[in-house]
Amino acid sequence: MCGLAGILTTRAERRASLEPALARLRRPLTHRGPDDDGAWWDADAGIGLGFRRLSILDLSPAGHQPMASASGRYRIAFNGEIYNHRTLRDELAGLGHAFRGHSDTEVILAAVEAWGVRGTLPRLAGMFAIALWDGEARTLTLVRDRLGKKPLFVARAPGLVLFASELKALVADPDFPRRIDASQLPAFARYLYVPAPGSIYRDVLKLTPGHLLTIRDADAPLAASEPWWEAERVADAGAAARGTWRMAGDERVALSHLHELLLTATRERLESDVPLGALLSGGVDSALTVALMQQVAREPVRTFTIGFDDEAIDETAAAARIAAHLGTRHVDWRVGGAEALAVVPELPRIFDEPFADPSVIPTVLLCRLARRDVTVALCGDGGDEVFAGYTRYEQGRKLLGRIAATPAPLRTALGALLTTPSATTWDALAAVALAVVPRDRRPPLIGERVQKVGHLFALGDAIEGYRSLRAAWLDPRVLLDVASEAPDRLLAVLGAHPTLALAERMMLADQVTYLPDDLLAKIDRASMAVGLEVRAPLLDHRVLEFAWTLPHDLRVRQGTTKWVLRELLARHVPRPLWERPKRWFTMPVRGWLTGPLRDWAESLLTDGMLREVPVLRASAVRAEWARVQAGRAGNGHAMWGVLQLLAWWREWRPTL
Known about the structure:
Blueprint: E1 2-9, H1 12-15, H2 18-26, E2 36-42, E3 47-53, E4 67-68, E5 74-82, H3 85-94, H4 104-120, E6 126-134, E7 139-144, E8 153-157, E9 160-164, H5 167-171, H6 185-191, E10 204-206, E11 211-215, E12 226-227, H7 231-240, H8 250-268, E13 276-279, H9 284-296, E14 302-307, H10 316-326, E15 329-334, H11 337-341, H12 347-350, H13 360-371, E16 376-378, H14 383-386, H15 391-404, H16 408-419, H17 423-433, H18 446-459, H19 462-470, H20 489-494, H21 502-512, H22 514-528, E17 533-535, H23 541-547, H24 552-555, H25 563-570, H26 589-593, H27 598-604, H28 607-612, H29 618-629, H30 637-652
Parallel strand pairs: 13-14, 13-16, 14-15, 16-17
Antiparallel strand pairs: 1-3, 1-9, 2-3, 4-5, 5-6, 6-7, 7-11, 8-9, 8-10, 11-12
Helix pairs in contact: 3-4, 8-9, 8-23, 9-10, 9-25, 13-22, 15-19, 15-21, 16-18, 17-18, 18-19, 21-22
């Protein structure tokens, strides 16, 4: 797990200064690779590759990057891990390839020499961003892994292409213009992240997951990236294959096969030449991941959990019970509000693009805790998106169907009835109604959910309805003064794939948008900020491909989400230790903005600051701030998004 950066240029002055230019690009990526620093350049070709290394496999100089292939034709900068590299190494050795060390980077180069880029990529099981220079063809190929676990940004100016693992490296180049792409802001207002392939900057693209980009001429406009793997095709193919699971006894066979796939994915992710552990919450996904680790590991797994004073979001007790049952070496840390709030000013530097998922705060703290003892950690990311873990899929499907069947006048009346009381009022009513239910077993964010249901009644359209379920700002035009809006891939996915049920289209839309652009971006930046590598066995592509072949009732059965994962977990951990309502890994934003974060927020909401960000409608911002202070703004995420945009703007000083 590392950071890469590079340059391709036809400009004479840039060719003459590749060495200092690469040093400028690498410096902001030191946190991603604190163990080693490398650069390679060819002034005649106008190409330079830079690398910062977090040493995980082959700690010797044989793992140093950028690395040359055995023939010298190829040079690579590679960020990530190839989990099946040993199998590929054996296959390549049989073809006559010799290896100097035991790094997976060397295996990629040998594979490219044997099979070419397009023949190699489908063989790789892992997470990766790759920059590969072909010295013979004078071609640069940029590649991103199937699901987008590793980031790769590409910028273009006349006669110049820059690429890097994080935007802050590109911004360090003196020729990089910090011009924002205002058309991306409506998506940020809705989803609290900027979706690929767009970025906050007009001249930068995020390489789409599962795509490669071939660049032959830095003077020419960038060609469109090409898919080498597509989640949408996998979903359609899986749905077409479901008939094979209708025979008697297939359920047991499916569970056994999934168990073997997960064991393989977990076992492969345990390879490390540095200390390794796991991030453990009290939920199904991380508990299953740790249980499988314990099954195949040679010694007790180290597990890490953080908690908070608020019972609604604290999982330390549940995680400790699971850890005790599994026999892990467990560490937990109950952080105070001051420690959590101290992370907030750091967010614009950690996320050098506006990013407002509040769960990044506990994620950063959890990664810091784990990094004290280990350099690699496994996590349970992906279970919800791959195995239908979000209640919004099934409940949303049912609710949207009922709303669509409701006469328009009644929809309007019900919408007004549900949205008129504030979220705080609904929360208070729920607290009274559920007084006999323990707090850790009450559904979270009840008031916010009720208000969102009220807004759904006004729409009456399933596709727009799902987007509203996901949205912080339901109508970004209220907030933003922008001329246009970038295409929304979530809507495109929801409107396609007629062989998939609505709930499955929701899940697929999340797999290609929310998963890479929010969840995986969050864990990448939070972990890399402290030099921690995080691996997610539930997101192994072989697991995802198999999951799409399963009948939907193996994922959701009688209202129980992630049914197959729960059945597998029950083989390892008694159900009473983990069966409870789903907890969201997030923070009490609304309470913070009316309390300890109020001064910080108001420092961003000055007239002068709002004038600096003319794309924001100051009147809408002030109205939303008043709603927050009056307790009428739901969970506060809409205002949190505005504040993170303002904080990012203050940190990076972009132009329009």
